[in-house]
């Protein structure tokens, strides 16, 4: 049973598509879990209602109106009478509705029997919010699709703190050390530095992808990528100032969702300017890395970003905080202890100010990790890479998309039982 898998905040759980979902619970506990799940970022496209009353309330609610895409019902019935209890529901249920039954018994025989009867999924309590979201997302998962890649958003607390440099080096490490297919998406279409840092003439791949976002698929997107070596590609703008490209929540979601179908790591190099789409991208990333320098403006902005993420990502791991350009000679700076107290996150790593190595790497278009592998800065980057890599797990096992109609299947199972 899927809900036997422990879902943790660091697992990649796909977002639920724009469906309608109604849940009818018998217990306060499940109601609270479902309401909290409905508020999770991964359910933001679904429209959900959570009510009490169990199967009887669901039957009453849908006598006259059509049932939603997903109907969750909680029942305390035991294995012997659960099918009979579901019968009135089958009578009102639209054939296309996927019914998820939540019961209080962890029983494989019951599970199989319900699935055979056309129930899309059976979940046993107690359930966590993430288990619920994963189960609902699982109903719409295409069994042929690739595992879901992890979206890692890199944002600087202000411009020039080294966020892009970090994003590119971490991506290089994913590609060259973890040997996983990695795509760097440079969302700074006009002034992005990814092409320069990877010493590549980038095409206007991102601009092309965005302008045709409604016909994106992995094959089309693959043609727009600039290859930067084994396992590493780049999707960027060509820093053309005259071409206007409309980045918004829909276009970015389409691009990133398509990229993550084929790449286990999608590193998003965010511009430091703030907009509705950058906020959306950050909130919906699987991991966020905030890079800051030890000064007051960086600290205030990092604290604001961390607070925003805390409020909107309650089921997610906290962001990684990187203190960069630490120890500039003669420059007074905020201590790591004061910085982390203000932001509410311990820095994962502290990268020293190293103008020699960073300067040489930037001017020659060579990754620092490749150019100065023994430097302290690279040592710190590798330590961040190790913590991020440990979160990279394979996606949960795929299960078939439920296509059965509870209406017909349940009726036939019940009538067969009577004969
Ligand atoms: N630790 C460091 N020491 C010295 N220079 C650095 C360091 N980190 C970044 N830089 C330099 O700072 C500049 C800005 O970096 P960049 O990654 O473009 O910042 P951001 O993306 O945050 O605007 C680059 O020239 C980069 O080489
Ligand atoms: Mg940048």
What is the strand content?
15-25%
Q: Over the alpha carbons, how many angstroms does the gyration radius reach?
A: 24 Å
- Which quaternary structure do these chains form? single chain
The number of distinct helices, counting runs of at least 4 residues, comes to 17
How many structural domains? 2
Question: At the fourth CATH level, what is the homologous superfamily of the largest domain?
Answer: P-loop containing nucleotide triphosphate hydrolases
Question: What does the overall shape look like?
Answer: elongated
Helix content: 40-55%
Order of strands, widest sheet: 8-9-7-10-6-11-12-13
In words, what does this structure look like?
Helix 13 (336-343) links the parallel strand 12 and strand 13. The chain has two domains: 2-140, Rossmann fold; 150-391, 3-Layer(aba) Sandwich (Rossmann fold). It is of the alpha/beta class and 419 residues long. An eight-stranded mixed β-sheet has the order 8-9-7-10-6-11-12-13, with helices on both faces. A five-stranded parallel β-sheet has the order 2-1-3-4-5, with helices on both faces. It contains 17 helices and 13 strands. It has helices at 28-38, 54-61, 82-92, 108-116, 129-139, 163-176, 194-197, 205-211, 218-224, 249-262, 276-284, 296-312, 336-343, 355-364, 368-371, 376-391, 406-418; strands at residues 20-25, 47-52, 70-74, 98-103, 121-124, 150-156, 182-186, 226-229, 232-235, 265-269, 287-292, 320-326, 347-352. The protein binds adenosine-5'-diphosphate and magnesium ion. Adenosine-5'-diphosphate (ADP) is lined by residues 156, 159-165, 193, 272, 324-325, 351, 353-355, 358, 362, 377.
């Amino acid at each position: 049973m899927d809900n036997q898998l422990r879902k943790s905040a660091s697992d990649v759980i796909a977002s639920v598509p724009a469906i309608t979902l109604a849940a009818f619970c018998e217990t306060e506990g499940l109601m609270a879990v479902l309401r909290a799940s409905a508020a999770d970022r991964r359910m933001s496209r679904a429209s959900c209602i959570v009510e009490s009353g169990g199967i009887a309330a669901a039957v009453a609610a849908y006598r006259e109106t059509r049932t939603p895409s997903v109907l969750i019902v909680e029942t305390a019935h035991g294995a012997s009478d659960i099918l009979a209890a579901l019968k009135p529901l089958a009578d009102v249920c639209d054939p296309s509705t996927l019914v998820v039954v939540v019961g209080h018994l962890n029983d494989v025989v019951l599970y199989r029997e319900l699935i055979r009867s056309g129930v899309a999924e059976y979940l046993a309590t107690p359930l966590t919010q993430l288990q619920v979201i994963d189960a609902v997302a699982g109903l719409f998962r295409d069994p042929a699709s690739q595992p879901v890649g992890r979206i890692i958003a890199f944002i600087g607390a202000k411009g020039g703190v080294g966020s892009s440099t970090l994003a590119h080096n971490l991506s290089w490490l994913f590609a060259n050390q973890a040997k996983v297919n990695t795509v760097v998406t440079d969302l700074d279409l006009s002034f992005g530095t990814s092409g320069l840092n990877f010493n590549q003439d980038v095409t206007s791949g991102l601009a092309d992808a965005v302008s045709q976002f409604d016909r994106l698929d992995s094959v089309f997107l693959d043609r727009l990528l600039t290859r930067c070596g084994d396992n590493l590609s780049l999707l960027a703008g060509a820093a053309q100032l005259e071409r206007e490209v409309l980045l918004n929540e829909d276009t970015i979601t389409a691009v990133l969702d398509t990229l993550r179908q084929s790449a286990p790591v999608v590193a998003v190099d965010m511009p430091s300017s703030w907009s509705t789409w950058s906020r959306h991208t950050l909130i919906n990333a699987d991991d966020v890395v905030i890079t800051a320098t030890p000064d007051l403006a960086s600290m205030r902005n990092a604290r604001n970003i961390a607070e925003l993420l805390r409020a909107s990502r309650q089921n997610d791991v906290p962001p990684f905080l990187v203190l960069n350009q630490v120890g500039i000679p003669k420059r007074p700076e905020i201590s790591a202890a004061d910085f982390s107290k203000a932001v509410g996150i311990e820095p994962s790593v502290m990268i020293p100010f190293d103008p020699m190595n960073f300067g040489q790497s930037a001017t020659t278009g060579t990754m620092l990790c490749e150019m100065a592998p023994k430097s302290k800065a690279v040592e710190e980057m590798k330590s961040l890479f190790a913590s991020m890599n440990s979160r990279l797990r394979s996606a949960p096992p795929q299960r078939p998309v439920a296509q059965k109609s509870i209406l017909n299947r349940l009726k036939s199972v019940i009538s067969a039982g009577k004969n």
